[in-house]
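Milestone M4 deliverable, item 7.
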Amino acid sequence: MSIANQQVKSYAFLQGLYEDGYFPDHVVDKGRRILLGLCERIETERPSNLTALYVLTEVATIEFNELEAEFDAAGSEIETVAREEISEDFWFVAKAYGFDDADTEELVAAREW
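Output delivered:
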């Protein structure tokens, strides 16, 4: 499935991480795919409320938790800059799909980073 939401299609996910040499592009690419996969799930499942959205963001957050080991193996980590960038992109996704009242911390509540 391809993304239908025009805001999402034109958005540069994890741009700050790509611009910082500390974060390896091949691992950031996987993070970008996680976020795009979240968007696809939102478009497919069409959550009707925040609770349903948070179920989807929890899955994506757990995928980022699993990605932590790849950052470590590449001499990097999900640290303050990365945490903020990832969280902001989860917030962007929520807003892009009409969940303006989503709580940023709740979107990534399952994070281990």
